[in-house]
Amino acid sequence: xADTVGTDVGFTAEExxxxxxxxxxxxxxxxxxxxxxxxxxxxxxxxxxxxxxxxRGWLSLSWPREFGGMGRSPAYEFILWDEMAYARVARPPMGxxxxxxxxMAHGTPEQCARFLPDLRLGRTNFCLGYSEPDAGSDLAAVxxxxxxxxxxxxxxxxxxxxxxKCWTSNAHWADHIWLLCRTGAADSRSRGLSVxxxxxxxxxxxxxxxxxxxxxxxxxxxxxxxxxxxxDRVGAENDGWRVVASALAVERHVQFPPKRLRRxxxxxxxxxxxxxxxxxxxxxxxxxxLAVRVAEVEALALALLGEIISGRxxxxxxxxxxxxxxxxxxxxxxxxMEFGNSEALxxxxxxxxxxxxxxxxxxxxxxxxxxxxxxxRQAFGLDSRG
Amino acid sequence: MDFERSDTQRALLDALDTLLGRYAGTGRSxxxxxxxAYDHALESELRTAGFLDLxxxxxxxxxEATLAxxxxxxxxxxxxxxxxxxxxxxxxxxxxxxxxxxxxxPAGEEPGPVRYGAEAGLILLAGADRCVAAPLxxxxxEPVPSAYGFPLARVAPVASGQGAELPPGTxxxxxxxxxxxxxxxxxxxxxxAFDLTVRYAKxxxxxxxxxxxxxxxxxxxxxxxxxxxxxxWLVYEAAFLGAPAEASAVAAAHTTAALRRLTRETHQIMGxxxxxxxxxxxxxxxxxxxxxxxxxxxRAHRRAASAARWxxxxx
Lengths: 386, 315
Description:
The complex is a heterodimer of chains A (386) and B (315).
Chain A: H1 13-26, H2 42-55, H3 74-86, H4 95-106, H5 109-120, E1 126-129, E2 145-149, E3 158-168, E4 176-182, E5 193-199, E6 205-211, E7 217-229, E8 233-234, H6 240-249, H7 252-255, H8 259-274, H9 281-310, H10 315-338, H11 350-358, H12 368-380
Parallel strand pairs in A: 1-4
Antiparallel strand pairs in A: 2-3, 3-7, 4-5, 5-8, 6-7
Helix pairs in contact in A: 1-3, 3-8, 4-5, 4-6, 8-9, 8-10, 9-10, 10-11, 10-12
Chain B: H1 7-23, H2 26-30, H3 40-48, H4 62-74, H5 81-91, E1 100-103, E2 114-115, E3 122-126, E4 131-135, E5 142-144, E6 152-154, E7 164-165, H6 170-203, E8 205-206, E9 209-210, H7 215-240, H8 245-270, H9 281-292, H10 297-310
Helix pairs in contact in B: 1-3, 1-4, 4-5, 4-6, 4-7, 5-6, 6-7, 6-8, 6-9, 7-8, 8-9, 8-10
């Protein structure tokens, strides 16, 4: 089955030329496993890749020129990370994406001057400290506390941070954590949260692994009496919810690249050929159904990109895309197992690994349930109180 | 019709649960020594207590043996209960010590990786009509890495003339009881994963209320329970009827479909904690996936069901 149906219509000649540059850049990184991080050793390779991207200005493609960016359309970022996903080479780093864009919108000039140059050049890496044991889908329940210090050698002007984040990706190799924490009363929900930037090597910060069954690693990040200067708070105290929400909005077009699905399907089709399953009409029917859905998700991704380029609110199209895309990731991954061939069980083959990895997709980055609720409320005005 | 468990069945299953409490369970399945290895101690205890003889027992029978397979699997017992409790006795073959491999490869093909293949000393190969019972040399097997709870290996090819060729019709006996047995294994594991998820939905608080108080999730759990109940009675019915082709294929097809949905939903409802190795959910959900490959999986179960009902042309 050919891999040819294109949905690249709508990109300009310049954007397509950029895709060509990306593809030729990628020839130097074949084999780098930074999309899934199946090997612990890939972290160093990814760090180098980000620096190489930074030197080309590709980590700041859509940053405004006044912040040192290239001032290009978000379409360029989409193309870059879509091709990276197809090659399984890397995912977009949080630092130059979400963190940098939030700093430009909410940070002080001093913070921008301190962080943006290294972020642009890929020299510093961030992880996101949002989820907690009792605050997953319900982020407003975050309990990690930042207490302003009234006196003492470090205060005033400092916070003391105590608590724990969990299921944190990349914390074991990042430099900083973008930390959502409580500065208001315990029951203040989304009105009492703030964002702090905390170096992960600060005394009192402990990162420990949470092994997942795709062989990967999430982390628990504990904070015990960690001192953080108030100058490292982004946005006003207790205004963290707005910072986090707006940061999310500007990165949605690169978070779930649709070409990952096209690659998944390609690998699955190749596997059915190797195992001799591809002659079975039942298998072919299933594969063609999946191919149609890949096209659907690509269309939804472009619709989302269009909204982001236009500057219109993108939460609903982003939820559409995430819902359809992540479910399809799982359906492609699960097809091999459904075909009832025990070759699909051999650990770390392409199709086997996809099965274990894909479970995460409909949970991380906003569960399908949160996405569905968001569509119902924001698109149709339905409210759970009836 | 009597759908209640008899006193004999209750006593039997209570005794089995007690045994499994000592020789199986989540803790034992996580022990490095037990992980990936066949549990000879469990097999020996089951044999001594008579559970491997239920199939032909005067006071019990194939249904009781099937119920026992379900329990052993629910408790993550690291043995091969399907051949031991169902297939060997159904074929009238003597008991065997140690793991037994089952395979039904398409004509002219070698079996793919099978559970406990690297330790099995006996394989039952179901052909088109006859079954061959052949000794295996574990030294000749080729282990393959497995992420799905059960160790897997490609067994050495069985040369023609090797082993005992059983009478005509025995291949259907193997397929029927294997389908019933694998479905019973799936039932036991699905039930555990489901119960774990229901408990989580009750205990976990999000947005200031129990996770299970959200109607969208209540409906999904309710639908899963329908699938599970359907699977349960189809499997028991097939066992009660003696694993005829159609009933066993229907039970296996339905169970495999239920398994797919149950895996997706339990993981989704459990969220991030269910993705971690420290949590127990994966002990069942990963093993369940290995069952999907048995006997050619869903496609083959459905084809067998339609062939049994409407004739072989459907295959």
